[in-house]
Amino acid sequence: MVAVAAALCVVLDAGLLGAGNGAVSPEAIAIIGTAVRLDAELALSPLGQRVEVVLEDDGSGAAAAACTVAEREFARVSAARDAEGACGPDSALVVIARAPRELASGAVWVLGDAWNGLADITDSDRRFREVLGVPVPRPLPPNMITGELIRLPAATDRTVLLRAVLEAERTSWAILGGHAVLYSESSDQIDALLTAPGVERLSHAVHLTRLRLVDVVPEGATVLLRLDVMILVEADDDAAEGRPWRKLRFGTSR
Amino acid sequence: MAESVYGRRCATQEMSTGDLGRMAEMERSFRVASRFESGMRELTIRVYFIHITDGAAGKISQAQREDQIKALNDAYRGGGITFTYGENEVAEVNDADWYRMGHGSIRERQCKRQNQAVDPTGGLNFYTAAPGGGLLGWATFPYQMEGDPEMDGVVILDASLPGGSGAPYNLGITAVHEVGHWLGLYHTFQGACTPPGDEVADTPAHAGPNYGKPADTDQPHNLCPSAPAGSEDCPIHNYMNYVDDDWMTEFTEGQIDRIWTQTGMFRTGLLTEDARTEAESAFGAAVSW
């Protein structure tokens, strides 16, 4: 049970943090970014609430990589059950993991578990706010929200992409045919990325829920990027062809 | 951590930060100690509109304000709550930066600090703006008021007021939803399927927000498997869900109870003198465990 709390301690499970070969996963970076932004927002208030981030370090290098991307040091523990010691006494402890795990106290949110966990990384801001009992801004439905889409050069450093995910809510990317395609709802972020050589804007306003990677352009769809054997389009809400962005996100399609 | 950040009226005990986690327990004690159940449930809330604009953008007409107050009254009348406002109390602030203030931002705090229209203990500061980021609005909770009074109130997307351009969110129900938070309600999907949810017994827990116009024939939608026996329907018509304006039609009795309890504990300045005396006495008893 997690009731409204004075502070929130978010522990990133090593299985969620790592992406293999010592790399940090973009999902973990997105959650860290959400926590860091909320903590900064809370710092403006005299109520004194805060969000702490603790990384479970399994020695793979992922925890260190997360700190590098964020350009700051987070508390680290060798196992999530030690996190209680790393968190403040008033903190509600939430461990976010890819699979269920036992915990002496606090809550475990399994990513992808809509019932008792975290349905998606994009829900983390709302869920963190719920634990803290602070205002939850009401968004438009996902199908009404638009963002911008850009293509970055094939040689773009992964750290650049991870840092973009860290910095802005709901930023995501996919590697399509060697190109990095990035979606962001932050115009400031897009403007900054567009100053780099070789970056191209694909759309000023695209519905993320309508992005699909297809072989053949569906009727009425808008072509955003045509590659050798695949096409990225913005299709109707009810289009069924190809793969939607939620299945492309943070992945590679060749 | 500052002690008593959710500080309480000085004549009574102060709540520590840890006490907030015992909100449900405290509410139960308050209900037992108070006689709030009966004829004291009559409340009039004065609304102070503060329209943040960018030139012509963001201007709200008198007809829109009147329709907004009507939407609030239609929704809350059953709970004994009435909203009023005065045209001579409406403020309009022309500031392009504040008009696009982000939630929780420095801009929001600056705007509210300089433009708060009423002491929040005695009325509702109702800001309209165009925050961007795909946001319809937000509100502070009652227990935050004493510790952070300058932020108290609701911020509502201007296009969501009745007659605005924000269809299907332009019937004034966004404000009904946000005022629900301001009076102490959580979302019906608070905490997903993990107790204590929204801390209201008669709103079955569901996993997350519903959008649009979910069909009554498709129940139970995302109702939690752990919902109490007899809970067969997800609250798709509840004002504290995320469905379209014309799909929101109800508060439950439990939500009205919670509104009165939260008001009695944290917004007594809104109450009549008799009700305030009753509430303060009950609150003193509720926190003296």
Can you describe this structure?
- The complex is a heterodimer of chains A (254) and B (289).
- Chain A has 254 residues and is of the alpha/beta class.
- Chain A has eight helices and 15 strands.
- In chain A, helix 3 links the parallel strand 2 (50-56) and strand 3.
- The radius of gyration of chain A is 19 Å and the shape is globular.
- The model of chain A has no long low-confidence stretch (mean pLDDT 93).
- Chain B is of the alpha/beta class and 289 residues long.
- Among the domains of chain B are: 43-182, 3-Layer(aba) Sandwich (Collagenase (Catalytic Domain)); 193-248, no CATH class.
- Helices cover 27% and strands 12% of the residues of chain B.
- In chain B, helix 1 crosses helix 7 and helix 2 (62-76) crosses helix 5 (173-182).
- Chains A and B meet through strand 6 of A and strand 5 and helix 5 of B.
Overview in brief:
With 254 residues, chain A is of the alpha/beta class. In chain A, 26% of the residues lie in helices and 28% in strands. Chain A has 8 helices and 15 strands.
Largest interface: A-B, 41 and 53 residues
The CATH class of the largest domain in chain A is identified as Alpha Beta
**Helix fraction bin of chain A:** 25-40%
Rounded to the nearest angstrom, the distance between the terminal CA atoms of chain B is: 22 Å
Oligomer: heterodimer
- Outline of chain B, from the CA principal axes? globular
